[in-house]
Specification:
0% strand, 422 residues, globular, mainly alpha, disordered C terminus, 14 helices
Length: 422
């Protein structure tokens, strides 16, 4: 797929990247936060989970908002919240400030994720371009992975060398947010008619089968991602107490880099095949994670990061590719936001459970227990996805957006189509 105006994707793609980078910067700092503010393992996982607790309602609320108010307007509001969150975290003097900053980051990610991803799909149609399939989704997933990988690597490095280790990463993030504002966005897509009002989240009946298989894969891909983002740096520190912040951040960055490298492969596979392959590789990554904890091997932990990242990239990109291809333009923002909400819920719940167990058993044992319980569930999900027919496209789904009638002419039967139940 070729972009008619390649520069128009720079704005939404870089916005996703920079927002995700800021949201993942605390990953390398959790161990230092625990020491500096005397936080227990469960409190540290709570610091991670509060981000998701704010993100989920925001992404559900803000997805449909971008369909009516415009992608860029909603995304710029998210950028403003991200800047405020980085400022609060950079100046934090108490645990309550850390939680406040993470809540602001969650609201920022919730507003921008669905809006910017929908803007990338809009860019594919700019000037009569081809329909958005793997290339659009791969670019969005790549932006998420690059941002999420660069955040821990940047913050871990700065925390090791900067004079203000807990503030310097967020000051750099503020500069990146300013630079993002200078980039171009695609032409505004036609807005959904009628005033915006909050609605209960839902999915159109025609795409529920596709959404269900995408959601199952997303749950496993993002739950393992959450364990790496929130807990693996602490595992790395336990396996090698002299490793510092750099090794933990580098391990997470390696996982996300492998995710980014695997995503283009998922876009080239037939619908559903990426999900099946991703779930299989995720199961292998979980097994390697258990072995790394059991043998207390830092090199094996790096191998687990490679496999886990490849599985996460294949599975999540494959899920989004099939779902995005089935959605008309006026429903992309809302339905993609529901998908992200499923992923972010899976990102937080296992982390909280493992953190609660870690208060009694220690982080290494708790993470190993997560892996032991998740492997059979992941394999069962693989069987379910394959049997559900996800590898075959649904002929009833029309991925093309409806053509717009001339100005002032109402499309026959055109009413405000909601993706949710009123």
């Amino acid at each position: 797929m070729t972009w008619r105006h390649p520069s128009s994707v720079a704005g939404p793609a870089c916005t996703i990247t920079v927002i995700c980078a800021g949201s993942s910067m605390p990953t390398s700092l959790y161990v230092e936060y625990g020491r500096h503010f005397a936080l227990s393992p469960f409190a540290v996982t709570g610091l991670f989970a509060v981000y998701v607790a704010v993100l989920i309602p925001t992404v559900l609320w803000g997805g449909g908002l971008s369909d009516r108010w415009g992608r860029r307007r909603v995304a710029y509001a998210g950028i403003a919240l991200a800047a405020l969150g980085s400022a609060v975290l950079a100046s934090a003097q108490a645990p309550c400030a850390l939680f406040a900053g993470r809540m602001l980051q969650g609201a920022a990610a919730g507003l921008t994720s669905g809006a910017a991803t929908a803007a990338l799909a809009d860019a594919a149609h700019e000037g009569g371009g081809a329909r958005p399939r793997g290339s659009v989704v791969s670019l969005a997933s790549l932006a998420i992975s690059v941002g999420s990988a660069s955040g821990p690597l940047l913050s871990g490095t700065l925390a090791a060398v900067a004079p203000a280790p807990l503030a310097a990463p967020y000051l750099v993030h503020l500069l990146l947010l300013l630079l993002v504002l200078l980039l171009r966005w695609p032409q505004a897509a036609p807005r959904a008619p009628g005033p915006w009002r909050p609605r209960r989240p839902g999915v159109p009946r025609a795409v529920r089968r596709t959404f269900a298989t995408a959601a199952v894969t997303t749950v496993f891909a993002w739950s393992l991602l959450g364990v790496f983002l929130a807990l693996v740096p602490a595992v790395a520190a336990a396996l090698n107490p002299g490793a510092g912040t750099v090794v933990g951040g580098a391990t997470v960055a390696l996982m996300l880099l492998c995710s980014a490298l695997a995503q283009p492969c998922a876009g080239r596979l037939v619908p559903g095949a990426g999900q099946a392959a991703g779930l299989g590789v995720l199961a292998a990554g979980l097994v390697l994670l258990v072995l790394a904890c059991w043998t207390r091997s830092l090199p094996l932990l790096a191998v687990a990061a490679v496999a886990s990242g490849a599985g996460q990239g294949l599975g999540f990109t494959g899920a989004l590719t099939g779902l995005t291809a089935a959605l008309p333009a006026r429903q992309r923002g809302a339905v993609l936001s529901v998908t992200y909400a499923v992923g972010y819920l899976a990102l937080a719940v296992p982390v909280l459970a493992v953190g609660a167990v870690a208060d009694r058993t220690g982080m290494v044992v708790a993470v190993a227990g997560f892996g032991v319980s998740a492997v059979p569930a992941c394999l069962a999900a693989l069987v379910w996805v394959r049997r559900s027919g996800a590898v075959r496209p649904d002929p009833e789904l029309d991925p093309e957006p409806d053509p717009e009638p001339p100005h002032g002419v109402r499309r026959p039967g055109a009413e405000d189509v909601s993706v949710t139940r009123r």
